[in-house]
Amino acid sequence: EMRAYGGAAFVAQKARFVERQPEGVKATIRLMRWWREQQEWSCECARPSDELLELVVAHTAAEHPPKDLASAVSGALSALAGLEQLSITWPLASRCYKEPEVWKPLLSQRPLVLDPTNPLVNVANSQAFDIGETMVRARAGMSLI
Question: By C-alpha distance, which of 88, 84, 67, 79 is closest to 138?
Fold first, then answer.
């Protein structure tokens, strides 16, 4: 599976990516993990991974800086609610590779959450992750904020 390709070599880079995020982003990541744990998922394949939540939160906050924690969570839930059309790539300053290193077929996938440390991985690969339940639960979560 492409997701596992070189995975171990990227662990430290992935940890640094999250460590470099502002405190507000880290707090939002913690809240999104809490939100995920409050849900009853039908199966493990429907449960969004830590990595997916981290990248969605980081990207959403970078694109639309939130005024507070509630708007940061709302932005992340909104992105997850529209997961089927989501396309996240990273500017050079945020990723660990050059554009030509990106596996080109990934760029046409939807949803796309390109890993900022590994140009061969779509973290939201719909063949490994059932997006439907996440979208429904994110929409329901948005109504509570």
Answer: 79
For the CA atoms of 19, 23, 130, 40, the dihedral, rounded to the nearest 10 degrees, stands at: 120
Mean pLDDT by groups of 10 residues along the chain of 145 residues? 55 86 97 96 94 97 96 97 96 92 94 94 88 96 84
Contact between 13 and 117 (Cβ < 8 Å): yes
Give the Cα separation of 86 and 100 in Å (integer). Answer: 22
- Which pTM was predicted? 0.91
* Cβ-contact 74, 80 below 8 angstroms: no
